[in-house]
C-alpha cells in the first residue's frame, strides 16, 4: 500500500504543469441566441508552445467605440461655442451700460437714500422717545456714511486733470491745482437747480409743450407727462401759477454712486450724483375747456372747481413735494442735471421695515 502511494507521488512530480488559456467569445452559438451573454472557455494544452499565454481579446463591446478624428473635432467645436454663465453675461452687460451711461439712466432712487422728515412730522421725544431715537439714529448713521463717501470721492477718487495735463502746467498752476482744484459736486447748488427744473416742468405740463424740456427730464417721467397731456384731449387745457414759496427749498437727501472707483483712473471715473430737494409752495391750477359757441366756432370757459380769488384763479393751495434730481459723469464727461421724479420722505415705518429686513425678521416684528 505504501509503495503504491510512493509511486503515485513520484509520477506526479514528473507531470508537466497545466497552463490555462482564456479567450472571449463575442458571438454566442445558436443554442444561446436569446441570452447573448459573453462566455469564457478554458482549454488545457500540453504542447511545448503553450508556455506563452494568449492575451484577452481586444474587441470593444457595443457603445464603447474609439473616438474618431471627426468626433474629436466636433467636441472641440461644441466646447468653443459654449455659452458664458448668466452671471458673466450680466457683468458684461453692466460694463457696456456703464460705458455709455445708460446704467445711470435706468437706475432708480439711490440705495441708502434717507429723505428727512419736517420737524413737525417727526415723533415726539416726550411721548415716544424710543421711536424718535431710532429714526434720529438711523438718520445720523446714513448721513455720516454719505459724508465720508463724499469726502473720499472729492479728495481721493476723482481728479479734474490727467497727469499729462498737470505736467504741462507751470509751477504756480501746479500748486493751485494741488491745493484748490477739486471736483465740485454742487451739493449746495442743488436747491436752486431743483427749483428751476421744477418750475420748467410744471409750466411745460400746463401748456402741453414738452419738447422744450425733453433733455431735462428723465425718460420715464417724460413719458408719464406726455400721457397726461394726451389724456386731456384737444379741447381741454390748463394754466399753472406759482404764487410763492412758503419756505426756502432745501436739500434733504444726497448720494454719490461710483461703481468700482479703484478700477479706473481718478480723471476718468464714472459716477452719479442724486439729490432730494424739498419744495413747498402755494400753487393754483386753472382748467379751461373749449366749447362750441353756436356760430361754428369755439369759446373758452373756466371749468375749475372751488372758490376763486380776485383775479379769477382758484384759491392757491399749499403743495409740498420732494423733487429728485440727478447728474451723471461717464468716463470724465459731464452730463447735465435732470429731473428724475418725486419721492416720499423716510418715515418711522420705513426705518423699522429696513431694520426688520437686515435682521431677517418677519413682517410685524422689530
Structural notes for this entry:
The protein has 366 residues and is α+β, with helices and mostly antiparallel strands. The protein has a domain at 111-359: Nuclear Transport Factor 2, Chain: A (Roll), CATH 3.10.450. The protein has helices spanning 2-13, 69-80, 86-100, 102-106, 129-157, 163-167, 171-180, 190-207, 219-232, 348-359, and strands at 19-25, 39-45, 236-245, 250-257, 271-292, 298-302, 317-330, 333-334, 338-343. The longest helix is centred in the middle third of the chain and has 29 residues, at 129-157. The radius of gyration is 42 Å and the shape is globular. The protein starts with a helix and ends in a 7-residue tail after the last helix. 12% of the residues are buried. Mean pLDDT is 78; it is low at 17-60. Keywords: Mitochondrion, Transit peptide.
Task: Spell out the blueprint of helices and strands.
Blueprint: H1 2-13, E1 19-25, E2 39-45, H2 69-80, H3 86-100, H4 102-106, H5 129-157, H6 163-167, H7 171-180, H8 190-207, H9 219-232, E3 236-245, E4 250-257, E5 271-292, E6 298-302, E7 317-330, E8 333-334, E9 338-343, H10 348-359
Antiparallel strand pairs: 1-2, 3-5, 4-5, 5-6, 5-7, 7-8, 7-9
Organism: Elsinoe australis
Protein name: Isotrichodermin C-15 hydroxylase
Region (Disordered): 41-86
Amino acid at each position: 500500500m505504501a509503495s503504491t502511494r510512493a509511486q503515485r507521488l513520484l509520477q506526479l512530480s514528473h507531470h508537466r504543469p497545466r497552463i490555462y488559456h482564456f479567450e472571449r467569445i463575442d458571438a454566442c452559438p445558436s443554442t444561446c441566441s436569446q441570452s447573448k451573454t459573453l462566455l469564457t472557455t478554458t482549454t488545457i494544452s500540453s504542447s511545448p508552445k503553450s508556455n506563452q499565454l494568449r492575451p484577452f481579446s481586444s474587441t470593444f463591446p457595443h457603445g464603447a467605440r474609439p473616438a474618431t478624428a471627426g468626433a474629436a473635432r466636433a467636441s472641440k467645436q461644441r466646447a468653443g461655442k459654449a455659452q458664458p454663465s448668466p452671471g458673466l453675461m450680466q457683468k458684461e452687460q453692466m460694463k457696456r451700460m456703464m460705458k455709455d451711461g445708460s446704467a445711470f439712466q435706468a437706475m432708480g432712487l439711490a440705495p441708502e437714500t434717507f429723505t428727512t422728515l419736517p420737524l413737525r412730522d417727526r415723533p415726539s421725544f416726550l411721548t415716544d422717545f424710543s421711536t424718535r431715537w431710532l429714526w434720529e439714529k438711523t438718520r445720523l448713521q446714513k448721513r455720516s456714511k454719505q459724508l465720508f463717501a463724499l469726502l473720499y470721492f472729492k479728495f481721493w477718487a476723482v481728479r479734474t486733470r490727467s497727469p499729462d495735463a498737470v505736467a504741462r502746467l507751470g509751477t504756480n498752476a501746479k500748486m493751485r491745482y494741488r491745493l484748490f482744484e477739486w471736483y465740485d459736486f454742487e451739493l449746495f447748488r442743488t436747491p436752486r437747480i431743483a427749483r428751476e427744473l421744477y418750475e420748467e416742468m410744471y409750466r411745460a405740463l400746463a401748456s402741453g409743450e414738452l419738447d422744450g424740456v425733453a433733455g431735462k427730464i428723465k425718460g420715464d417721467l417724460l413719458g408719464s407727462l406726455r400721457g397726461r397731456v394726451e389724456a386731456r384731449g384737444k379741447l381741454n387745457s390748463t394754466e399753472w401759477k406759482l404764487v410763492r414759496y412758503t419756505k426756502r427749498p432745501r436739500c434733504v437727501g444726497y448720494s454719490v454712486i461710483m461703481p468700482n472707483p479703484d478700477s479706473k483712473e481718478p480723471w476718468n471715473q464714472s459716477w452719479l450724483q442724486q439729490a432730494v430737494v424739498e419744495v413747498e409752495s402755494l400753487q393754483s391750477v386753472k382748467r379751461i375747456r373749449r366749447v362750441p359757441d353756436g356760430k361754428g366756432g369755439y369759446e373758452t370757459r373756466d371749468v375749475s372747481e372751488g372758490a376763486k380769488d380776485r383775479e379769477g384763479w382758484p384759491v392757491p393751495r399749499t403743495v409740498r413735494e420732494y423733487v429728485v434730481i440727478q447728474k451723471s459723469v461717464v468716463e470724465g464727461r459731464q452730463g447735465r442735471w435732470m429731473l428724475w421724479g418725486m419721492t416720499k420722505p423716510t418715515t418711522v415705518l420705513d426705518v423699522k421695515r429696513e431694520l426688520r429686513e437686515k435682521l431677517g425678521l418677519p413682517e410685524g416684528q422689530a
